[in-house]
Amino acid sequence: MTKQTFLKGTLILIIAGLITKALGFINRIVMARIMGAEGVGLYMMAVPSLLLILTLTQMGLPVAIAKLVAEAEARGQHKQIKRILVVSLAITGVLSVVFTTAMIGLAPLVSQALLTDERAFLPLVAIAPIVPIVAISAVLRGYFQGKQNMKPTAYSQVIEQVVRITLVAVLSTAFLPLGIEYAAAGAMLSVVAGELASLLYMIFLFKTRKSFRIRRRFFPVVKEGKETFRSLLGIALPTTGGRLIGTTSLFLEPIVVAQSLAIAGVTTAVATQQYGLLAGYVVPLLTLPTFITYSLSVSLVPSLSEAAAKEESGLIHQRLDQALRMALLSGGICVVVLYIFATELMTLMYDAPHAAGLLKTMAPFALFLYIQGPLQAALQALNYAKVSMMNSLFGAIIKTIAIFALATRPEFGVMGAALAIVAGFILVTLLHFASIAKTTGFTIDMRTIAKLALLIVATGMVGTFVQKHSFFTLPYLQDALLSIAITSVVYIGGMFMLGLIKKSELQHFPLIGRWVMTLGRK
Asked: Looking at the predicted structure, is the pLDDT value of residue 118 above 90?
């Protein structure tokens, strides 16, 4: 089985994440054109229930499996790898049966009492078969990531999106004459089909590359795996707890914001509109680059776990330095573009230039958000998942309190909610970093921080100049795109000039390395 280096594995996942993001955007456009806002609304009503069920079913096992497989691989314990897989499949098998049954059985209650629209029943039932599919996929994905082979995860993500987009138009259109709820159910079936295609691909790879038989002595291995079971749950439960904290925090956020704005004297309609600008327009733009940091996080878990198993503290520090530097560099250009071109982005994407102030306020602090994922992954890889969970819990509590404290003041309004959200992710990131520094002795090279600050400021000045003095004769869209492109090129050039990307790292990507060296000679 091909094992990639940390940087190559991350690059593979980043490319797949970019493709998946683009395909997902196309998928949303197709659904909106066919079903309209009402159909998409019914579809989205079922999504939170699905995410909650999937979180409970997977129980954070992909992270736990990746960590334990990487450690077993480092020690040459091949029998232990089979035991990890068998026990994981047994856990997810039982949970998927329980939660699939619960999802179907509770669908009438959820649709009528909680979602207040009985038409959501069909989408809820249609999506239920995805639970066991995703459960098995999670186990295989964790196995491949533990082997530090990121290609199956990357390719399966793309396959899932391609199948989903191919079928969503066909199924939604076919069921639309029966009613909008049937069209939404058809869209859900396309999601199930995409996940099934992804799973079949990973099963094929697993069967052709594994060195042991899963079905042989399956139940005896399960009985022998009590220690493995405890090890898996020791990592998985805190990871799940952290995700549930995040999910619950997101659930409470609109409620607290709406109530706070009401106290501040904002009418219900205006409060809903303002929260829509914040949560529907600004936050998605801020979180758009997180597919890069997610890729870093996925690659970091098995890499750090292997280094920890071999007691190579120097390699742990090296991987942490690489991950945080890559996250900061990729986040830096995003911060510059989001801040300088906030009005252009809001106008072109949403026709809402009045939301640019919120984006400008939050963008400079987004760097903390971009390094939060790798720091959390590092804590999980180093057996500090509980610490990560408690940091997330504390941050969620402070954020909720801050929203109420700030958004209830008329002079702040929805800007208070934005500041509270920023304070929340800054606090969690700082707590994660303090935990890493305390447990590993890791510190960030301040010269790197100084160079990055210089690069961001210089690029911001160039971007501001280009925005004000260039391309006025072009249409608004072309003007904005050219200005953003020039700003990005300046940032990338400065990144190499300041040595923020090392030559040793470029050797992992021969094509990029040769291109940079050619530019350097010229």
From this structure: no
